[in-house]
Amino acid sequence: MSGGDVYTRWGRTSCPSENTETIYTGVIGGSHYSHSGGSNNYLCLPNDPQRDQAGLDDSSFGYIYGTEYEIGGSSLFKHLQNKEEPCAVCKTNARTVIMIPVRTTCYSGWRLEYSGYLMSQHHSQAGSKETICVDASPEATTDSFIADQNGALLYFIKTSCGSLKCPPYGSDTVLTCVVCSR
After folding, report:
1. Per the count of CB atoms within 10 A, which of 1, 23, 27, 90 is most buried?
2. List of residues 6+ apart from 162 with CB closer than 8 A
3. How much helix, strand and coil, in percent to the nearest 5, is found in the chain?
4. Is 39 within 8 Å of 114 (Cβ atoms)?
């Protein structure tokens, strides 16, 4: 597959269609929800890491943690509460890939790669994380812990009316997203 664009499918262990190639699969990682520093983005960490064996002894490091679904009282994804999230890095033959927030379909002329829900860390937690589009049919990692481990956390994102006009947005609504290509 030559040319094309690359994107991450958050919450799944495979790429979505015959028009994509899986570059690698992994687990979502990020900085701890309570740390004020560290990485501000989620990463798709490969399932087959290669480590430098140099054995650095410096105590001044940033840390990366696995990411858990934090569903709370929502009926969406309830079976995944506190489970770790997988990811897949996908290459498509399309030249452009875009994540469009608050949509359930792609605009005319664009092909749907996958649809889902906007998720990020809780509004009260330290630091800031990017907003990602988690697949509407998410999975947990195959060896996911049963217990609440914390680390990097993902929550649904809702609207807050005021400076965001309602309508067209709805008050206190869980937001959708689509990943589209062409």
Report:
1. 90
2. none
3. 0, 35, 60
4. no
How far is it, in rounded angstroms, from Cα 6 to Cα 99?
A: 12
List CB contacts of 153: < 8 A, sequence separation 6 or more.
33, 67, 68, 70, 121, 122, 125
pLDDT in tens, 90-122: 999 889 999 999 999 999 999 999 999 999 888
Q: How many residues does the chain have?
A: 182
Q: How many other CB atoms are there within 10 angstroms of residue 155's CB atom?
A: 19
Report DSSP letters for 34-69, one per residue.
Answer: T-SSS-SS-EEEESS----TT----S-----EEEEE
Contact predicate 82/70, CB 8 Å: yes
Q: What is the pLDDT of residue 2?
A: 65
Within 112-153, residue ranges assigned H as helices are: none
Angle CA 133–134–137, to nearest 5:
135
Question: How far is C-alpha 37 from the chain's CA centre?
Answer: 20
